[in-house]
Specification:
The structure is a single chain. This protein is an alpha/beta fold. It has one domain: TIM Barrel, CATH 3.20.20. It is built from 12 helices and 13 strands. The protein has an 8-stranded parallel barrel with strand order 3-4-7-8-9-10-12-13, surrounded by 5 helices. Strands 5-6-11 form a 3-stranded antiparallel β-sheet, with no helix packed on it. It has a two-stranded antiparallel ribbon with strand order 1-2. α5 packs parallel to α6. The structure holds flavin mononucleotide. The site of flavin mononucleotide has 27 residues, from β4, β6, β11 and α10.
Length: 354
């Protein structure tokens, strides 16, 4: 099938960004976006969380919040796809407009506020794709008006662990007031105790054990980083995603920089990589890290891997460059690994720390 993206890209870029995103999801649902069928280079394969990833490049949460197109996105060449964030109850989110492009900066600001169709709808979609190949993570959040936010994460795990390969506990969206407070010491202890208990209860009931991953913000000071490292080590959490969007507006030029929300894309790269590097050091390489934030090239992915990431994810660059970017990033990552004499991704993980 011919690649229509170069033809439709100028139209999408002139549309309201949220409408453009809806249209993209619709095109993917109806099979209008051709798959990239090339098998991954063997140097890209990596074992993490007891899973065998064909390549380390994943789709970050937020693109496919409602699990409408995970298989179409796996077909674009991603090594894994993360759906969500999903909250127990469906939620409209903040009033529109709530998604803003900053093309000059290759950035996006969003204040979506966990707009999603809720666990029932998402679970039904995942149920319907059960047995399909391709690694899928399920990212869960809490409803804005929930009285017990931690209970929302537990509900999400109960509902989606059996339908996914790993679960992400997203406590770092800046668009749900107070959510990031869950990154504090006492709050994290309670959150992780209850989430691990939920996972253990599923295992006791006969389900296979699913990795639990915590997704953190890039806006963490030294103490905040230490608190998280200690908590995930103490609770036996399997991994960390570093990072979500930032509240920082450093280095932005476009007029939309004054919009409220979380910023992602190229200007987030340095900050999120700095936190990633620190989390690798603080967790002594004992926790699997997923690096996200501002990746738009194979060299960016490679930098995150050398800083300590076993896997990487991206989203914003996809909105600017289209789905072919996945193939380009993988090809360039292979070249970076070979240039520096690494015969696998695993060999390069944390290379900057030795
Ligand atoms: C429009 C938009 C919506 C997002 N929604 C979510 C979300 O629901 N849950 C989540 O954990 N992260 C969400 N993210 C954050 C991304 O998963 C990612 O962590 C962040 O954008 C940094 O990566 P990037 O610079 O490659 O986009 C969202 C990002 C964008 C741009």
């Amino acid at each position: 099938m011919i690649d229509l993206y170069p033809l439709v890209a100028p139209v999408l870029k002139r549309m309201d960004p949220e409408n453009a995103h809806r249209l993209t999801i619709r095109a993917l649902r109806t099979g209008l976006v051709p798959s990239q069928s090339a098998a991954d280079h063997k140097v890209l394969g990596i074992d993490a969380f007891g899973l065998n990833f064909p390549n380390p490049v994943g789709l970050a949460a937020g693109f496919d919040k409602n699990a409408e197109v995970p298989d179409a996105m796996l077909g674009q060449g991603f090594g894994f796809v993360e759906i969500g964030s999903v909250t127990p109850q469906p939620q409209y989110g903040n009033p529109r407009p709530r998604l803003f492009r900053l093309p000059q900066d290759m950035a996006v600001i969003n204040r979506n506020g966990f707009n999603n169709e809720g666990l029932d709808v998402v679970a039904a979609r995942l149920e319907a794709r059960k047995g399909k190949s391709g690694l899928l993570g399920a990212n869960v959040g809490a409803n804005k008006d929930s009285e017990d936010r931690i209970a929302d994460y537990v509900t999400g795990i109960d509902r989606l662990a059996g339908l996914s390969d790993y679960m992400t506990i997203n406590i770092s969206s800046p668009n749900t007031p107070g959510l990031r407070d869950l990154q504090g010491k006492a709050e994290m202890d309670e959150l992780l105790t209850r989430c691990c208990a939920a996972r253990d209860a599923l295992v006791a009931a006969g389900q296979s054990r699913k990795p639990l991953i915590v997704k953190v913000a890039p806006d963490l000071d030294d103490l905040g980083r230490e608190v998280i490292a200690e908590a995930v080590l103490a609770h036996g959490i399997d991994g960390l995603i570093v990072s979500n969007t930032t509240l920082s507006r450093d280095g932005l030029r476009h007029a939309n920089k004054s919009e409220v929300g979380g910023m992602s894309g190229a200007p987030l790269f340095a900050l999120s990589t700095d936190v990633l590097r620190d989390m690798f050091r603080l967790t002594k390489g004992r926790i699997t890290l997923i690096g996200a934030g501002g990746i738009s090239t194979g060299a960016d992915a490679y930098t995150k891997i050398r800083a300590g990431a076993s896997l990487v994810q991206f989203y914003t660059a996809l909105a600017y460059a289209g789905p072919r970017l996945v193939t380009t990033i993988k090809k360039d990552l292979v070249a970076c690994l070979k240039r520096d004499g690494f015969s696998s991704v695993a060999d390069a993980v944390g290379a900057d720390h030795t």
